[in-house]
Write a structure and sequence with these properties.
Length: 342
């Protein structure tokens, strides 16, 4: 009973939620000691306590491909199928990062595309470090935003094939999803002063601004002069020209290499074709010679058999003649005896 899905759970992507995990990995999770000891009879509230104890994430590792605790809890959530509000609270939890990642991974498996983009894209702003267990059993340090990016753009994460996710621009084009708002745009808006402050600064000193040039124009003039007369500008021009020449030389070399490669490929192809032709010719010649030998042998056998049969017939004829002559002589001798005897 512990390995069965909750009877009140709904199908996900037209199948049992547990079928999102491959059967081999599921059986390994069922036979794992952590599953038998800590995940038996676990509820949605108990999953939170177990997720708070996690210190790494990962799929399967080692020679026997043992599952991680993170993967066991993912399968348990697929069995229980908690409410959407609980999953969202998992994702919004900022104190425990592995609880957040557990909710994000579960939502990526069973959620709708709109919900996935809506709740996972804000996690790009979380740059905290996490530990990921590799297939050889070692650990590596990555960031939360990297893991979220792999969930949105990779086809297989933590040894599980993720359901197909439509591209974001497709959802935007169909007006199902709004365009993404970056945090950098908000920062730019905060740095720009409001319009009221700009008008006040304009009204304070109009005469000075009319008579005297602004600091920005002065700085720009100075910069242009310094750039035009500085030796660094000449160096930069020379360096640019050198870089261009180098790029041209590289492009020419690459073209020559490509041409040489193509010519060598053509030569190799022609050689291989000629070899194939010669081998075919040799094979055909061998076949012809074999057929000729077989024909000659067959004709020889036939001639020998005919000779033998002719010799046998001649011998049989001679024997018949001899026997007939002997019988005639016997008959004559018998008749003569009879005539003498009267």
């Amino acid at each position: 009973m512990a390995n069965q899905t909750d009877p009140t759970a709904r199908t996900v992507h037209g199948t049992n939620p547990q079928n999102l995990v491959e059967k081999i990995i599921r059986n390994r999770i069922y036979n794992y000691s952590y599953w038998k000891e800590h995940c038996f009879g676990l509820t949605a509230e108990g999953i939170v306590d177990k997720a708070m104890e996690l210190d790494h994430l990962g799929g399967t590792y080692g020679g026997t491909r043992k599952p991680t605790k993170f993967l066991c809890l993912v399968l348990k959530m697929l069995q229980l199928q908690p409410d959407k509000e609980i999953v969202i609270e998992f994702i919004k939890n900022e104190e425990f990062k592995y609880v957040r990642l557990l909710g994000a991974y579960y939502l990526r498996l069973i959620g709708r595309p709109v919900d996935i983009y809506q709740y996972l894209e804000p996690l790009f702003n979380d740059f905290r470090k996490i530990r990921d267990r590799l297939t050889d059993g070692n650990y590596r340090v990555i960031h939360i935003d990297e893991f979220i990016e792999s969930l949105l753009y990779d086809e297989r994460v933590l040894d599980i094939a993720l359901p197909r996710l439509p591209k974001r621009h497709v959802l935007e084009y169909s007006s199902v999803l709004e365009p993404r708002k970056s945090v950098l745009d908000d920062d730019d808006d905060e740095e720009e002063p409001p319009e009221a402050e700009k008008e006040e600064t304009k009204n304070k000193s109009p005469r000075k601004r009319e008579s005297e040039p602004s600091d920005d124009t002065r700085k720009s003039k100075r910069r242009s002069r310094s750039r035009s007369h500085s030796p660094s500008s000449k160096r930069s021009r020379n360096e640019r020209e050198r870089d261009r020449e180098k790029d041209r030389d590289r492009s020419d070399r690459d073209r020559e290499r490509d041409r040489d490669r193509e010519s060598s490929r053509r030569r190799s192809r022609s050689r291989s074709r000629s070899r194939d032709r010669s081998s075919r010719r040799d094979r055909s010649r061998e076949r012809d010679s074999r057929e000729r030998r077989d024909r000659d042998n067959k004709s020889r056998d036939r001639s020998e058999k005919e000779r033998e049969s002719k010799g046998r017939t001649e011998k049989s004829k001679k024997k018949d003649k001899d026997t007939t002559e002997i019988d005639a002589d016997d008959i004559k001798a018998q008749n003569e005896l009879r005539a003498k005897l009267g």
